Amino acid sequence: MEALRRALDEPVRADAIQRAGPAHVATLKTFEPPLSSLAGRRLAAARRRGKRLLFPTEDGELVLMVHLMSAGRLRYLTPGEAGPKLPAFRLLFEGGGQLVLTEAGPKKRAGVWLLTPRVAEEELAHLGPEALGLGAERLAEICAGESRRLHSLLRDQRVLAGIGRAWANEILHTARLSPYARSQELDGEGVRRLAGAIDEELARGLELRERGAGNPKVYRVHDKLGRPCHFCGAAIARVDYEEHTVYYCPDCQTGGRVLKDRRLSRLLK
Ligand SMILES: [Zn+2]
User: Fold this and answer.
1) Cβ neighbours for 268, distance < 8 A, ≥ 6 positions apart
2) What's the CA-to-centroid distance between 181 and ligand 1, angstroms?
3) How does DSSP classify residue 35?
4) Mapping DSSP to helix (H, G, I), strand (E, B) and coil, where does residue 108 land?
């Protein structure tokens, strides 16, 4: 997300907005102020808070907020560059460039909000501190304050902003911690390893994304069932849930134990 923000920051500022929309009915989450009120205004920057991208207008009156969820894709198309026929959302700039949101699959989960700065602040108030650069000391406080499984804790945006399902897998693997270890049971050394892994993995992802690398290249554990662990060579295992999948190395992370498929065991109960 940070790589995308950096890539968009310059182009979105270059020209005033000519037209905002159309937007898919499921994608646009707000009606007031109307999208048409963006016309003629300039965006000041592309900013990021957790997994949300924020585009404040230069006059300080409006903020366009975008959340891609898991399948949304946001791109800047230069003037004349061919775009999708039916984007989920489009922002057309006066120079002919476009900011285009698309979402693969039938489920429309990505969202676009047009907000006043005050409402935007309220929307973002529940987000935890940014994960990147958090440091061991703050992380120790967070872990001590919550008795949670590490994978679930890392993904909770109210606790830490900016880590999704895939990066929780990558981070815990690099930290060599079990996805099911309890946050309160981590010792100082475990917290330091986790804090180091958060920075290391998010920075690695950022660098690869900026070079244009796609998911198969960026992820080393996530979505790599049966592939060799890059530390020890053991086969990567996974546990399925309804909404997400945990990938891990049994040798590096769980002392050789293979974790039960939670979805299946719930059905059998
Ligand atoms: Zn391993």
Assistant:
1) none
2) 17
3) G
4) coil
Neighbours of 257 (CB within 10 A): 12
Residue 219 CA, ligand 1 centroid: distance in Å: 14
- The alpha carbon of 133 and the centre of ligand 1 are apart by a number of angstroms equal to 26
> How far, in Å, from the CA of 251 to the mean position of ligand 1?
5
* Of 110, 205, 214, 210, residue with least CA distance to 167: 205
Buried-exposed string 2-25: b where 16+ CB fall within 10 A, e elsewhere: bbbbebbbebbbebbbbbbbebbe
Examine the pLDDT at 4 and tell me if it is beyond 50.
yes
Instruction: Please write the tens of the pLDDT for every residue from 178-217.
Output: 999 999 999 999 999 999 999 999 999 989 988 888 889 9
Tell me the CA–centroid distance for residue 235 and ligand 1, in Å: 8
Q: Does the global pTM surpass 0.70?
A: yes
Task: Tell me the two tokens of residue 33.
Answer: 């102020």
Contacts of 162 by beta carbon, 8 Å cutoff, 6+ apart: 1, 2, 50, 51, 130, 131, 132, 202
User: How many angstroms is it from 112 CA to the middle of ligand 1?
Assistant: 40
Alpha helices in the chain (DSSP H): 2-9, 11-14, 117-124, 136-145, 150-155, 165-175, 188-210, 215-218, 250-253, 262-268
Q: How many whole angstroms from 249 Cα to the centroid of ligand 1?
A: 5
pLDDT of 93-102, one tens digit each?
A: 999 999 999 9
Let me know: does 35 contact 29? Beta carbons within 8 Å.
no
